[in-house]
Structures are given as structure tokens and as C-alpha cells.
Amino acid sequence: MEQFWQKITSIAFNRSGRPPLPNEKEYVTPCTASDVAPATIDFLQSLVGDTGSSLPIYLTALTHRSVVHDPATPNLIESNQRLEFLGDSVLGLLISEYLFRQFPGNAEGDLSSNRAKIVNRKSLAGFAESIGLGQQLIIGESADRIRISQSESALADAFESLIGAIYLDKGIEGAFNFLLKHVINHANFKTIVAAEHNYKSRLIEYTQSHRLPPPLYTVLSEAGAEHEKTFTVGVTCSEQLLGTGTAQRKKDAEQLAAKEALSIIDAAQKEETPI
Hints:
Blueprint: H1 2-13, H2 38-48, H3 55-61, H4 65-68, H5 81-102, H6 108-119, H7 121-130, H8 145-149, H9 152-184, H10 189-194, H11 199-209, E1 216-223, E2 230-237, E3 240-247, H12 250-270
Antiparallel strand pairs: 1-2, 2-3
Helix pairs in contact: 3-9, 5-6, 5-9, 7-9, 11-12
């Protein structure tokens, strides 16, 4: 593992200290370094060490989207959604590489299933809770601060955003060291890996084993304010709608749709009715 990281970071992945990319914009946060509570600085330093000039990136990682839509907040402020996008990819890469090396006898399907269980919203929210991330979120004044700070979705988003910020500041090795400490060495990690497959993975396994097209997830409708939207997602296979689900995140709605689809499939199998 150590040789792998020495090799990969010697090539191009260590972003720490890199020059800005063309058209790369500055992070605009709802507070400056002088406004940040000492407890927040201590929290970040205890997690990642010295933040230095990268403090704005970490503050952005803690900024919930409700701040952007708060009437009292300037529209220039950026939430953690873009960092969540980056962190999701970094997390997927590092967990995939770890599982690939840790379980050499596992087939592709088992590796995919285990990765899905580790990076799903419930697991990520649990990792976020274990480091007290909810108490450090920057939330809009008009939003329900208590609900958001305890929200599984908000916690999972912030955890991914934090990984994205660490990657930008300290590179791929820094991101891996963070995951090693707070995910892979977490007390619940082995339990999560051993848990039952999630619904989307189980539905994929069903379609593959029956030589059917892969499930297709489509957003059927959206409702609610911009920072409190709910999504209704449908899952189809061979152009047949098998299930729907509604949640505040598309990924969660997809899980619920897959769950309903599996229930329908199970009922059909009991009646020996082909899907």
C-alpha cells in the first residue's frame, strides 16, 4: 500500500501547492478567517492538521446550501455542493482501490456491492457523526438548524465535501490518510462491509443474473424550496416501471425505488410470474 501511494503521488495526483487551474474561481464563504470560531479552527486542525491558506476551502466544505438561499446571505457565497461532487469521486476511487487490494479473491460484483455499502448515505452520515461534523456545519439563519445538523443527507454531503477539500489541499495521500483513520479504521467498518447488500446493488444483481437490461433511474418530479427539495424517482427495466421512491436526495430516492422494485419482484416470484 505504501509503495502504491509513493508511486501515484509522484506522478500527478498530489494537488497540494499546485497553481490554480485556468478559470478556477476563489471560494467565497459566509465568514472570513477572522470571523471563524476558535472551536471550528480547532476542529479542522484536529482532523486534517494545519489548514494554512486553504481555510476557505474547508469552510466551504462546512457550508450547507441553505446559506446560499438565505435572504440575509450574499448570493456570491458558495455551498459545499461542488466539493461534494469532487469528494464523492475521490471517496469512490480510494475505497475501490482499498477493497481491490484488501479482498483479492472477491469478484467484481462483490467489490461493487461492498463499495456501495461503505459510501451510501447512511454509512457516510455515521462517519460524519463520529467526528462531530454536524455541530460544525454553517447553516442559513432562516433554516431549521437543529434538523439540518442532524440530517443524514446533510451529514453525508458534508463528509464528502470535506474529503474533496482535503484532496484539494493535501492531495490524494492526504485524502487516503483521512479515510484510513475515519472510515477504514472506524469501529463499524467491518460491520458495514458484512451487512446485507443495498437495494440498488441487489436490483443490479437480479437483472444481471436474469440477463436483463440494467435498471434505469429517472426523476419523475421535484417539489419544495431549492434547499429543501424532494425528488420522486422511478426505476424501469425493459421499459417497465418497477418502483418509485421519494426523498430529499436523488440517490436516496433511487434506493427507495429499488426497494419497491425488489418487493414487486419478490411478490411476482412467489406467484411464479415472470418480470
